[in-house]
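Please go through the sequence line and token line underneath and see whether the fold suits the sequence. See right below:
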Amino acid sequence: MIARAPLVLFQAVATSLLPHLTRLRSSGKEEDAEAFRLSIRATVGAIAAFAAAVGLVVLIAGPQLMQLAFGKKFSYDRVGLEIVTVGMGFYLSSGALNQAALAQGQVRRAAACWLGCALAFIGWNVLPVLDEFRRVEVGFAGAAALLSGLLYLLYRRPRVRPEDVVQPGSPQELEAQLAAADEAS
């Protein structure tokens, strides 16, 4: 619930972020390039603030809130909830950074980041370390942090191929918007 509920809320931001960033990126104006960077910084900053607030609530009352939501027969430890909260913050940041990468025409490189992190998550989960629940929690947070870091590097150092740049109003922009909406749901 900690990982999934914020993603549902974030989908409205994610679906509007791509067209906004694509328009800014394709204008070629320096003030729009700065607005592009500011949009990403503001979005990732808002996600970090949200994740910190959720982390504080989870630290104070996480296990009790889980029992309130799901009943007394379910319990979840505070450490596990905090790990998932950290993963949620990185995962949401990855969504914003992914939109930036798509707007910059980095579709293939972004897809490679996602695939690599998915494989790393699977690989981690077959290792005989920790108990199975903690392994999934740590794997989720680790894979999300890795993905966020890779997409941040991609956003900071794009290698633009003209055929990969999504133009505002193009069928590719509509397709990217639909893919983002589908990914968020």
Observations:
- Residues 4-184 form one domain.
- Residues 24 and 30 are 10 Å apart (CA to CA).
- Helices lie at 4-27, 30-70, 78-103, 107-126, 132-156, 171-184.
- The mean pLDDT is 88.
